[in-house]
Design brief:
This protein is an alpha/beta fold. It is 40% helix and 25% strand. It contains 8 helices and 7 strands, in the order αββαβαβαβββαααα. Strand 6 and strand 7 form a beta hairpin. The chain is globular, with a radius of gyration of 22 Å.
């Protein structure tokens, strides 16, 4: 990309918004930004650039069957009494199941969370992973807890009791939907539960989400087309940032000066 074009994009996308801009979040979660004519024109330009980028990503060729897929395993690490050591150990075991996988490149990222202060929803964890340069093509968010399950007593009779539930949600910033997987068991069955859950995650990535992912080379070309190396540096975009994080860094309104 020519330097003058990169500079033009940088000015258009990264200059601070007018000091009088106002950001409002409605009850439905929609963000509305208002301001004077100059501010609104700049916001419209940002929105058009975002739409053009998303359109190119949607139209890009899909990945080939043998292309590697970067998978990020999200592991919140809570402080104090909310910390779940068993969950952290289970996620480590889960990641180890993929260490020799020929296609999936799985990385686990431990994300410190402060009880009563930090969020641990998917969006918050993905953002934190991206800031650490650990964004993937696919993300896996897990939960470890208990839930009621039907089993048999020693005498063979059916009974309801509590079982360990290890759940995984598999999703990508490239696709609008997600896939869920779950295994039930007890402490003595942890290894078996992890292996079975890993198999379900692998199937969800390779057979469902994987074929819908854009080809890595296509994403790289689209990023270069829209942003250029200089603009990426100025916006502090890391090599591992997923499209959602790239868009957030490039197009979010700048806070007004103090």
């Amino acid at each position: 990309m020519k330097r003058w074009l990169v500079a033009t994009l940088a000015v258009a996308l990264l200059v601070p918004l007018h000091a009088e801009w106002k950001k409002t979040v409605t009850k439905g979660g929609k963000t509305i930004v208002t301001g004077d004519a100059k501010t609104m024109a700049r916001i419209e330009k940002h929105q058009q650039a975002r739409a053009a980028y998303e359109k190119d990503i949607a139209a890009a060729p899909r990945r080939a069957a043998g292309d590697p897929i970067r998978v990020t395993l999200l592991t919140p690490v809570w402080d104090g009494r909310d910390r779940n050591d068993n969950h952290e150990r289970a996620n480590q075991m889960l990641m180890n199941e993929f260490k020799d996988d020929p296609v999936l490149r799985v990385t686990m990222v431990n994300i410190p969370r402060r009880s009563g202060r930090d969020r641990a929803d998917d969006a918050a964890l993905v953002e934190e992973a991206s800031l650490r340069g650990k964004a993937g093509d696919v993300f896996v968010a897990t939960q470890l807890g208990t839930e009621a399950a039907l089993g048999r007593k020693g005498n063979g009779k059916l009974a309801v009791g509590n079982a360990i539930a290890y759940k995984a949600r598999v999703f990508s910033t490239f696709t609008p939907d997600s896939r869920d997987a779950k295994e039930l068991g007890n402490l003595l069955q942890t290894t078996s539960m992890v292996k079975k859950l890993a198999g379900k995650i692998r199937a969800a990535v390779l057979n469902d989400l994987g074929p819908r992912l854009p080809a890595p080379a296509a994403v790289a070309e689209i990023n270069k087309k829209h942003f250029g190396d200089g603009l990426r540096d100025e916006a502090e975009i890391a090599p591992g940032d997923d499209p959602k994080t790239v868009l957030k860094k490039l197009f979010k309104p700048k806070p007004k000066p103090q």
